Amino acid sequence: MNSIKIKIINQLKDNYSFILYNDNKDASIIDPAESLPIIEYVNYNDLKIRDIFITHHHKDHTSGIEGIKKQFPEINIHSPSSHIKNTRFVLRNNDEIETQINSFKIISTPGHTLDHIIYLDNKNKILFCGDTLFRLGCGRIFEGTFDQMFSSLQKINNLDENLNIYCGHEYTINNLDFIENILNKKNLFTNVRQKVESDLKQNGKSIPFSLSDEKSYNLFLNQESNIGQLIKEELGLKNFDLFKYLREKKDNF
Ligand SMILES: [Fe+2]
Question: Which of 68, 103, 138 corresponds to the end of one domain?
């Protein structure tokens, strides 16, 4: 059986890139920020890089492309925009893409940037969501509107809750501190804090995480959870307003 393996590579201060590979050692890369650690891992493990997939145009998700392309000139770069240098294939909402390693469905999630896309692998139950969703948080709205970001998050909220999610940054503790602080309800998050702290202790990272956990605890993603209902009632807010309230507060946290 040709199973997929995912190597998480720490990049820059708190970024994550991913190397996906199979038993035949075909590999693809998601969001390379720094080429060197990726090339080292690829060479050490004798992998053959076929493709690079990009979630959005920000430098900390794309600046590794050039160095990798130099080493492996044959690779294909897939991205949401022809403005991203070296892009060979521009991906759009609902595109489906099959490679030796991946079987991705593309979902457009504007908000953090207008070009943002995420990569859903339904067969392996994994989602690479860049800077749209973080564990217990979501991306800052740089280019889109609150409405766009809200509906992008709703697209994720409606996916199969058995998904394992790989996001673009390690922001979880900060997100947890924020939500406890802003709602002044530490006790609601005791379980998730225990889980997060144990993940960090064991693996040095809090990813991947499950969509079903996020649906319970991430109020940017799901306002219909038990916690969401409680908070909405207390603050007198509807779903979208709770999202907007939290996102605005988080920008200044
Ligand atoms: Fe970003």
Answer: 103
- Answering whether pTM is above 0.85, one says yes
* Cα 78 to middle of ligand 1, angstroms: 17
Report how many domains make up the chain: 2
Token digits for 61?
A: 């998700």
CA dist 109 and 129 (Å) reads 9
Half-sphere exposure of 135 (CA within 13 A, CB side): 27
CA–centroid distance, 55 to ligand 1, in Å, is 9
For residue 235, the CA-to-ligand 1 centroid distance in Å is 30
Average pLDDT over the chain reads 96
Give the domain CATH number at 166: 3.60.15.10
Q: Taking residues 225-239, report their average pLDDT.
A: 97
In this prediction, residues 132-148 reach a mean pLDDT of 98
Do 155 and 217 fall within a single domain?
Answer: yes
Expressed in angstroms and rounded, the spacing between residue 58 Cα and the centre of ligand 1 is: 5
